[in-house]
Amino acid sequence: MKIVAFELNGAPHLGVVEGDQVIDLQAADPKLPADLRTVLEQNKGDLKPLGELAKKAPASARIPLKGLKYLQPVGNPGKIICLGLNYLEHVKEGASRDNIPKFPTIFMRCTTSMVAHDAPILRPKVTEQLDYEAELILVIGKKAKHLTMENATSCIAGYSVGNEGSVREFQRKTTQWDMGKNFDQTGGFGPWLVTSDELPDAGKGLKLETRLNGTVMQSDNTDNMMFPVKETLVYITQGMTLEPGDVIFTGTPSGVGHARKPNPVWMKEGDICEVEIQGIGILRNPIANEK
Questions:
Q1: Is 25 helix (H, G, I), strand (E, B) or coil?
Q2: CA max distance for the chain
Q3: Domain-terminating residue out of 70, 91, 111
Q4: Could you report the per-residue pLDDT of 198-251, keeping only the tens digit for each?
Q5: Distant-in-sequence, close-in-space partners of 6: CB < 8 Å, separation ≥ 6
Q6: Is the distance from CB of 249 to CB of 189 less than 8 angstroms?
Q7: Claim to verify: residue 119 and residue 262 sit in the same structural domain
Q8: What is the enclosing helix (H) or strand (E) of 54?
């Protein structure tokens, strides 16, 4: 099931995607919360009731997918946890090539750094070094702490697509990456959430690809993660309690713009960046200059 968040008549809505249409769940039940995080909290991570509601929806609840104003699948996640240096070939193209990580590299993003599908990613005024990063996103469905390899994926409500846009100049200024990872509106999240039952356990074996103006820049498979989904969840929950609606970016493969030879490739105004993950969909964002 594909669950999409969108804006209609100035208000947030949730919908279920079927073909080229969206079933507006608020039209089926006006009392339904319009925020996926709240739905996950109330249903303890179970999204099947949304599918049942969609089946009961009147014909008038169906609207075209074309022209939809997308919102981020989770509008206000409590935490956005990011995993760096998770594909070996990507590690080799950066400063850590001689110091291969033995543990997951964890950092955080804030909500103001993210935009939805079709919304512009902004190149900051202060630098041209805006880079793309294709990533599989996990959306947490229920509270979890001290997960094990046996139950790790039980907390995942679904998966989405991320473009973990990075401002390299500021990322490199210090040993801490957070400044370069948190410029306003530099990352993408969408177009929707695909429930975990629709994909292989732990998101294994999924092809992911970045295209900049139609040219393939990154192409890899989630099987090549150094710290796969289960191991990452076990590691994180040793210290952090995961809660409904939390979002986890799982790292990017090689081919990023800063490592391009002979010259780096930065996203600039007028570009279109697409990130596609097998079984989930295409996250598309135009690039615009910060005003």
A1: helix
A2: 59
A3: 70
A4: 999 999 999 999 999 999 999 999 999 999 999 999 999 999 999 999 999 999
A5: 12, 13, 14, 15, 22, 68, 69, 70, 71
A6: no
A7: yes
A8: helix 48-56
